[in-house]
Amino acid sequence: MQNRSMKEGYPLRLPDGMRDRIKEEAERNCRSMNAEIVFHLQRALFDPLGPRDPAGASRMERA
Asked: Which of 24, 28, 33, 49 could form a disulfide with 58 if both were Cys (CB 3.0 to 4.6 A apart)?
């Protein structure tokens, strides 16, 4: 059965190497690539502390 909460598709162009990195992370987290992308988008958009930079500091910590 189709998940009705996921209605829209979007072709996504990724920089070289990013698809492989997403695939590796998805496998490590036992998720599909789509679920991994959605997880990170939700975290970036809705995390109350904001997205973190690669060093792990949130926007508020850098301010």
From this structure: 49
